[in-house]
Amino acid sequence: MLDQNTFVEQTLLRLLDQKKYHSLRDILATMNPSDIAYLLEELDERRLPLVFRLLPKELAAEAFVEMDSDQQELLIRGFSDTELKEVLDEMFVDDAVDIVEEMPANVVKRILAQADPDMRKQINEILRYPEDSAGSIMTTEYVSLRPDMTVGEAILRIRRTGVDKETIYTCYVTQDRHLIGMVSVKDLLLCSNDDTPIREIMEENVISVSTHDDQEQVVQMFSKYNFLALPVTDAEGRMVGIVTFDDAMDVMEDEATEDMEVMAAMLPSDKPYAKEGVFELVKRRIPWLLMLMLSATFTGLIITHFENALAVCTALTAFIPMLMGTGGNSGSQASVAVIRSISLGEVESKDLPWIVWKEIRVAVLCGVILAVCNFVKMLLVDRLLMNNPDITVTVALVVCVTLVFVVLAAKTIGASLPIVAKKIGLDPAVMASPFITTIVDALSLLIYFAVASAMLPL
Amino acid sequence: MLDQNTFVEQTLLRLLDQKKYHSLRDILATMNPSDIAYLLEELDERRLPLVFRLLPKELAAEAFVEMDSDQQELLIRGFSDTELKEVLDEMFVDDAVDIVEEMPANVVKRILAQADPDMRKQINEILRYPEDSAGSIMTTEYVSLRPDMTVGEAILRIRRTGVDKETIYTCYVTQDRHLIGMVSVKDLLLCSNDDTPIREIMEENVISVSTHDDQEQVVQMFSKYNFLALPVTDAEGRMVGIVTFDDAMDVMEDEATEDMEVMAAMLPSDKPYAKEGVFELVKRRIPWLLMLMLSATFTGLIITHFENALAVCTALTAFIPMLMGTGGNSGSQASVAVIRSISLGEVESKDLPWIVWKEIRVAVLCGVILAVCNFVKMLLVDRLLMNNPDITVTVALVVCVTLVFVVLAAKTIGASLPIVAKKIGLDPAVMASPFITTIVDALSLLIYFAVASAMLPL
Prior knowledge:
Two copies of one chain form a homodimer. With 458 residues, chain A is mainly alpha-helical. Chain A has 23 helices and six strands. Chain A has a three-stranded mixed β-sheet with strand order 1-2-3. The first copy, chain A, starts with a helix and ends with a helix.
């Protein structure tokens, strides 16, 4: 797939160098807009507008939508007003909004000036909705039908107005702008009698979202119901737009990426890794690193506090990293399982009790298995094989008893904190590995020294 | 949304208790199959078949597909052969395959016996493809057209045969079973002349996948091209099926969940967290915990080896957790960024050099910022505020120089290992936080003691 693309790309670049614009245009015209966008991104500032102008108008607009915002800006700055207007006229409103959101103010001004009044109004409307809300990702171009139309009239209406709609396959039946039903083109085409009124074949139980619903919720509904499009209504129940499956897919991918980034202690970003500069990456990574480094002061203080105990039984120091590591891993397993379940809408705040109870049982089982294995390993490897007489049965017992409690604490905390975060309005993904690890590290040490003090003459 | 569902659910349960089956049936008939499945999952073994039998046939099959495999099995075991046949007849082939894959052998045998011969053949065909391949997630029910048909004939064909197809909106043009073009229902409906031959309006540059392509690649194509459906061809280029956007969305979600689970040191699973038993969770979590715990033996050995050095300068011990933690976090930031880019198809093996170069620059910047902050913190907080005379300027320097090297090593290793894993055919997600942390832990200690030995009189 990718190799084939590289081949096409090189052929096109050769044609460009040889100024064979006619052949270039003919090949480009058969290509998919996404592939053209991919190709355009490889071009320099000088050749980009040249190739772009070779594209047929509709394809040009489609490829434009798929491009990077940096390159879009470059092109817009080079466009004449007429060219900009032509591209905008071919665009769907939601794509125009996506572009406007990424552009600096002076470019936005030019775009709004060139968009036709109706589109300008719709762009401004969508821009008013909060970021990451259903309203901000919807499009206002959908097919609406009246309940008293016949199937034949509906098909005619679609054939007449469908070209400007983002999808024609799901049509919405409205009365006084209120959503009262929906009907698919499949239903219309498969209906044997063209005179049947829409009212009779429409699905009345329409599932919709509200403009202010979170986009994550919209995605959950797509994956639950397998819809092609989901209608969006305002606070008064009037239909204002639709979210289509392709936008939902993009959101799904972005939300998963964002969760992973937050879980790995990074501030999330919209840009792909390859496009991000070194300084941008540092800016996204340093805050949490700094925060977590400074909060490790506590573990340092705990160790300093128990310095004398460690001096008496130096063998204990060697097991600190293992205990912390196992605690961190146990905790992050639980937290990631819960964070993902929250993201997928499978788990809510009210589920906290059974989750904690489940994790306690898992933790006891895991803890005991780990402790037994570790006990055997310490006596066989550390004591016998490595010939270290400091590793007594009591020291091994101290480490293994600590292990059980550390795993128990880690899993309970790891599973609870994401739910607590959700409840108080924080992103649950923050409560993943790095954050949990820092808490569990300190806790592991406290448990370790408490158990050691009780069992050893320190 | 969820609260509304709970309300509906309680109403329905009340009707069930009062044996008002007629009203129950009327309400169920208006509901979405996914919501019905959700409701059925709440019912016990006795009431489940009762309510299921109230559903109209088509809706029953649709709800059945959305249910848990445990409940599907329960229902199938209760079905008469005729009932089973009725449900199967309403089902799409790919859904039937999904069910067959989850059932024990004797249930599979019954299903195949009741499926009509054509469906049985198709199920067996799809089952032959490797797990997680395009072939295994496709359906064989699509609309195919001939190039010499007219638009009018095509619409007629869709109206006649469309009811059994998973999607009618993208139709595929084939000649001798080879895929030569595609045309959307939108193109057909918006075409002004019904006598136009399909050949003239079809898109000839059709993007397809091969039966053995990985499902992750299929998902990447969906998110790149925004397709409703993607055609699947066999090794000879013959069209054998399609993957629809809703299945791609499910795969997208599953793959993201799997990546997160693997990144958090768990063996992945298909089951949602809420449905998994304690033993299943332990089985998925203990292998990596055990492996990582035992590999922490190395960190223990390193500390034991430098026991005397630590005894001379006890202050050093207190900073071990901070160095390990910062190293682990730095490494996991880099590894997760790269793992996600690989999953999204943005990064490949050949990108290793620039990725390492980028991470080196990010690491130096992050390392220096962290070192400076830590230096100030150690002298102000640990030395002055905590009044700890052991924290000399030299000790602070040792810790901070170590920090720079640890971050550098962690980011380089974190970014490289996922790519190396991909290259040798392992899951890149394995190379996330827990695995990286274990390596970085040992490395941090070695760097720490090397720097300390060079700068302090140990």
